[in-house]
Specification:
single chain, about 220 residues, alpha/beta, five-stranded mixed sheet, 10 helices, 5 strands, about 50% helix, about 15% strand, binds zinc ion
Length: about 220
């Protein structure tokens, strides 16, 4: 690898040329405006590249990523992204995407010290503590993935509860919130079926989706 990272610039030139060849004028059209339909809130993990895995081009996906796809109402960064996406870009869908075997979730689950991020991961420990009885019944090897899914549902609910999304719904703007999980082992997305299109949907959709996670991981109809 060169010190100036020339290989990345070369790849970039190749990539831009390929797109331009496939769709002549692509970049000059994109200068005019971006009109993405989706806001993706995902993990910063390098194995979960948002645009690539849904095969979307520049201009089609607005993206916010952080460690373990956390959305908290004190995070000005996430809130600013959501506000711009909803109010200015008028995205129709906000998708919180977790992924299997997430290192951040694993650290939170097992109280592993990783550094400054420990403070960030406290939010996931809150989710862990809420679902502690269920998680203790899940076989140890599947516990991280169970918490990954519960974390997605919690963060999707947090998106729904932002003043930005609430206000959009109150003025009749269509914004639908989703919770998905990505499988590192097979490259596939799965819908956790927490789809929320209005304030009254939040709690029922969250409760249904949590029950469904519990059923899947406990392998029976038993729920907590
Ligand atoms: Zn992750």
């Amino acid at each position: 690898m060169s010190t100036e990272l020339n290989e990345l610039f070369e790849s970039n030139r190749r990539w831009a040329a390929e797109i331009e060849q496939r769709e002549p004028g692509f970049f000059s059209r994109l200068i005019q405006q971006q009109t993405p339909q989706y806001l993706w809130i995902g993990c910063a993990d390098s194995r979960v590249p948002a645009n690539e895995l849904v095969d979307l081009l520049p201009g089609e996906l607005f993206v916010h990523r952080n460690i373990a796809n956390v959305v908290v109402p004190s995070d000005l960064n996430a809130l600013s992204v959501i506000q711009y996406a909803v109010d200015a870009l008028k995205v129709r869908h906000i998708i919180v995407v977790g992924h299997s075997n997430c290192g951040g979730v694993k650290a939170a689950l097992n109280n592993l010290r990783v550094g400054l991020a420990d403070n960030w991961l406290r939010h996931i420990q809150d989710v862990r503590n809420t679902h502690r009885i269920f998680l203790e019944r899940v076989p140890a090897a599947r516990r991280v993935d169970a918490l990954v899914e519960l974390n997605v549902l919690e963060q999707a609910r947090n998106v729904c509860r932002t003043t930005i999304v609430e206000d959009a719904w109150l003025r009749g703007q269509e914004v639908i919130i989703h919770g998905w999980v990505y499988g590192l082992h097979n490259g596939l997305l799965e819908d956790l079926r927490m789809t929320v299109a209005g304030i009254d949907d939040i709690e029922p959709a969250h409760a249904r989706a949590v029950e469904s996670v519990q059923r899947r991981y406990l392998g029976s109809s038993t729920t907590i």
